[in-house]
Amino acid sequence: MSGTRGPQEHPNGAGAPAASEAGAGLTAGGGTPGGPAQPARHRKLLYATLPGSWGAVVLGCLSFTPSLLPRGGLLQGMICGITAAIGYGLGVLAACVWRAFADREPRPARRWSWPAFFIGAPILFGVFFGFGQYWQYEIRRLMGVTDYSVPLAVASPFIAVLVFCLLLLTGRGVRGIYRRLSDLLKRWVGARAARAVGWILVTGLAYLIVTSLLLDGCVALANQAFSVRNTTTQEGVHQPTTSLRSGGPGSLVPWGSLGLQGRGFTGTGPSPSDITGFTHRPAAEPIRAYAGLASSGSTESRASLAVADLKRAGGFQRKNLLVVTTTGSGWVDPAAVDSFEYLAGGDSATVAIQYSYLPSWISYLVDQSKARAAGRDLFDAVYDAWLQLPQSRRPRLFVAGESLGSFGSEAAFSGEADLRIRTAGTLFAGPPNFNTLFRQFSDQRDPGSPEIQPVYRDGRTVRFTTNPATGIPPADRPWDGTRVLYLMHPSDPIVWWSPRLIFNAPDWLTEQHGKDVLKGMLWLPFVTFWQVTADLPFSTGVPDGHGHKYTTEYVDAWNAVMRPAHVTAQDLAHLKEVIAAEG
């Protein structure tokens, strides 16, 4: 974080920092130029450069600019500390580049530079801190969020300083290791070669520690912890007494092998009487088939087992068949499936499989290949069985996925034509920005349509909506045959997060903002990326209709995709109340 070591120490020999961090206008430990020299062993950790300090303050202030979601003081402090550390490194790097173009060595700061910093920095930080509190208030108002902790908000600058210092010391520790290696290598090779080899060794060591020890170790611990949780059962969930559910009487999948989320999926859901209360007509009991990680050893075998249990229960004799790719832990959003079953009048079957123990936000980072395999293998197994049926007896085949589940579901298809030919309808909610088809449809959208609600090829098959109750553009164009619908909130960080945010301004921030995104949000290099990254773990901690929380929107979305007969606007309003109450 503190930049690279320069070619020599300060010429006064008083133990000043390396040239790359000495910058134009440097004093050790924040002191003034010309002051008494202090022992080098103290300066190695305590000194600060003027360019780096200004960089830290400027980026730290910019971290208070609004992001997609409201955040508390603890999170704001962490983001401020991270961005300040990045700013410090950028300030040091900028000073180093400037000296290279000016062809001069580092020199002490002018006498007025540090006093100006100690006066200007607190004022600048205080102004941005005040604006930050106002922006957070506006975001909470947009989303109807009432939780707010004044003590944590006041503590956020102190948290930021702590995080900044830890990151800065970590960077300097890495640089210290490099210096020792470089000095050691100089005994056998030239100085330039020693420096180059030293950086290669330190970079490789840091990479191995982060990936092999920290990342892999943390993932392994999380996997072990969540595998234990997978053996539990949610309160209120009971083993099915019907043969129409996996884990019930006659099922090919044992109840104990379904996992936590699988038991929640097959052990709950609307009953025939619940559905009759909505449709006012006799309703069948929906079929639900599922295979957990403990049900079979591979993704392909779990898909085959789930489809076999679906056949056993009579799922292919139902009018509507839904293939769902789960999120990381095997979770199926109850709102999505319940809405589908209500609108199908109970004449439906749903099948899903588990591919990971990890929750979605961790699987989002480490289990993408597993999600892709699960979506492809499950749909292929269902589709193969579906093709064997006489054409007149085939159910309408639908596909759904939320978040990482949409990424997995997309893997089964090559594009718009494939979705139109092999499905009767598709609903994807909160698609991650790296989804292949989602990016293809969005990037190739019709001219003039915004990224938050693109129009692809006049909406003939694929459409996007931020709120299906208020419209699915283009309203004036036909939407015949198979309907593919992407449901995404303007404030959903899962949809908009991308490494490209580091250096590139996205269209969704340069165009007119979405209804629940603060108009004052703007793109800033590095800063916006870290802010949206910080929004990811808390994307569902907001009211329904915002962030990554999709609940009652499924009612209007499935109504648009399925086009059920005899469903009125009053029926949809009533069903939304039912889904909201169940959520």
UniProtKB/TrEMBL annotation:
Q: Which InterPro entries match?
A: Alpha/beta-hydrolase_catalytic, Alpha/beta-hydrolase_N_dom
- Record key words, sorted: Membrane, Transmembrane, Transmembrane helix
Q: Where is this region: Disordered?
A: 1-37
* Domain spans labelled Alpha/beta-hydrolase catalytic: 287-575
**What range(s) does the Alpha/beta-hydrolase N-terminal domain occupy?**
64-270
- Name the domain of life: Bacteria
Sequence intervals crossing the membrane: 45-69, 75-102, 114-136, 148-170, 196-215
What Pfam families does this protein map onto?
Answer: Abhydrolase_9, Abhydrolase_9_N
Q: Where is the composition biased (Low complexity)?
A: 13-25
Any keyword Ligase? no
Protein name (Swiss-Prot/TrEMBL): Alpha/beta-hydrolase family protein
- Species assigned in the record: Streptomyces cathayae
